[in-house]
Amino acid sequence: MTAARKLAEPVRGQVDADGLLLTADPLLMRLHLRCGGKEAGPLAVPELAALCRLSRRLGMNLSRPVQASDDDSRIEMWVETRLASPEKDQPLSLSIIDWKEYPHDENHKNDPARDRDFDRLEGRGAIRTDAALRIIAQQMPGKAIRNFDAIGQSLLDIYDVIPPSAHAKLLEAVAERQPVRNQRLREKTGAQALFLLQGQPLIDKAGLFAGYRFTATPDDSVERQEPEKADTKGAAGKLISDSLFGMQLGPALRQPLGKIIANAETISSKLEGPLRGDYASYAKDIASAGRHLLDLVNDLSDLEAIERPEFTVAGDDIDLIDLAHRAAGLLAVKAADHQIRLELPDKEQKLPASGEFRRSLQILVNLIGNAIRYSPDGSVIKLHVSSEPGFAQISVSDQGAGIAAEDQERIFEKFERLGRSGDGGSGLGLFISRRLARAMGGSLTVESAADEGSTFTLSLPERTKP
Amino acid sequence: MDRTKQNDILRRARAIADKASFVADDFAHALFPRTDVPFNDRMRSNAQQYLRSVVRNVERRICEIATGDLGVSQEMLLSVGQGDDGQSYALLDHGGLLNRPEIVQHLFVKTQQSELAARLLQKISQEDLESTLTRHLDHEDPVVAKAAMGLLVAQSKTTGSAGEIACSLVDLPPEIVYAIAWPVTAALARLSGSPGVRLQQAAERLLAEHDESAGVARKAERLAQLLEQAEMQQKIAPHPMKDGLSLFVARLARQSGLTSDQIVTFTAEPDMARFIVVLRAADYPVQEALSIYAALDSGDNILTAATYGELDRDRCLTLVTRWAAPDAYQNADRILSRDYLGEAEK
Questions:
Q1: CB < 8 Å from A in window 239-268 of B
Q2: I want to staple A14 with a disulfide (CB 3.0 to 4.6 A). Which of A22, A101, B167, B339 is the partner?
Q3: What's the burial of B263, exposed, middle or buried (CB within 10 Å: 0-12/13-18/19+)?
Q4: Which residues of chain B are modeled with pLDDT < 70?
Q5: Greatest Cα-to-Cα distance within chain A, rounded to the nearest angstrom
Q6: A60–B222: do the CB atoms touch at under 8 Å?
Q7: CATH tag, A3-103
């Protein structure tokens, strides 16, 4: 999986005495921009900049292999520097006679489709725009029709920038092709939903600015005030409202927990420099505990949502085989950590069903995640599909210790852990998954015997094949 | 005693007095070496001989440029430029200007390379060794074939006579040319009484005309890079008797993320321990590793399949990754680890 570029002509650039990149061929310009550089700004590829500095300091022409990296790939180059003359203020010419790109390790690669699945699983939306901020793709939670309508329109025609964010600040970031952070937007029409927008500039293969990829998180901080006002009468005398997690504690806890996890991961990966081994290990424990808490917050939010009488699910047209592959993709790294192989149904097949995309994915992620958690390292987890009259079914079979017959119904109860602790589970996953399956008109069952592994089967109403 | 002899004794006495305080240092280094790397008399002699040649070549080229291109007409510079014996070595040696870490490290690497080449020649003839490279001349990718041809040509220009380290200005790393050119220029200015500015201009020209891409080391690295890219699908493991020393070292350096100089240095260390770890980290099969070890070893040590096979690859990878970090980081890391140990002991 390499992107070799047979260079008919070397990739050229010029760097002045202050290290500013004066001119650059498209490939070099693209790398420079992706490394955070600006046009006519300081050469932002550290390895190339170091070579230029050395060449200038020695007053000598150098010829060396150089490795550089951007978000997508590692690039191997062979670089020659040429000083125009002994005059120290003359530009230095860079000539890259070999250029080969290797995608980053699959496990660490940011696969856009996988990113989108994470976004959808966590209820985030995604918007892709062109360089003029016209929407060219949009996937917002539960808004299928408007998603389609938005395409081709300017982002600012569909959404209003609302305080404390500023319209000018957003445009300024776009003009400078800088990342967009925490901009609050409100839909101009319809439900006027609020979103928190994060965006990354996209650079195309010719090194040109090609637009943005935004993620839009529903912003509950304003919404949560509105229901409070509206429900003042109803909630009078009630210290805890009936949407404690979904509207109040959940959003309030997720942000600090996210920061704790991110910072602990930064410390444990020693990104900021070397660290004593035991400190790095403490930081890993902090990140792990943070993730556990975050999972618990998510589970409690879900629990609260499904127990509300008005809880409904959408009836999307879904394909269980496609969902199985997406869920397995999301958990691929976790499975690899335990040398567990996920055996999946043939991707070419289809098993149409009716159910909410995000909730069905959530159930499968929960089932596969449990299977990984309770299977021995090096084992195989099999996903297979089947049909029963009126229902499409997908099963997840593991080679774990199995569940005794008397416990097989208990595991679907709230907070039931069968006496286990310390494995990162909350005892809510299966309870929520079964409730979700039933809400979609299906079921979630288990077949197991002690020491023979377990098979969980999700059944959803069949949809006639298109 | 005639007056000249008296003056000579006085001069030498002054010079010895200047250095007297270092006698204990030198003796301490000989008595208490800080590494386990053995240095034999042949290596010392080769290193000194090579350093003299380097200084002589640099000085000759500076004199050529100064007298030829810049029109400086000074007798001593003219004679040095025309190939007479160099003048500056003794002065630089006396002034301690050649005892710089980067120069000494380069000397050590070149000396060890010469040792390895000699060991290799006990197992395969020079002709066979040279013919191994020709196999890449027919490579299907013309860029690889061209790079192989470049390496062959560069090597043929710098092959020295047996037992001598060939010194070619083209082959010197830029950092070494730079580290030697300026002290040589200063020495020439002092010895000849010529205007320093003209000699400085000559040195600048020497540096500017130096083409790093023409040296054997870079040619080997370039070919190693191209071969690795071409052989992504069907990997052929490097071997000194199939690739020749320069290309083998460059290929192994590339695979391991280390520098060629580090690989050469590892082969000088006791039992070639770090070299073995590098082979294991790069996942060389047992038989291949034993064969490489045997080709480069002086014959004193034995590596067994069991010893090699039992090395834990993950631990080897961790070690090699650590050695690939910048020197400044590794040094600081070592010092900080000592501090932590000290803290713990308190």
A1: 254
A2: A22
A3: buried
A4: 1, 158-164, 231-235, 338-346
A5: 86
A6: no
A7: 3.30.450.20
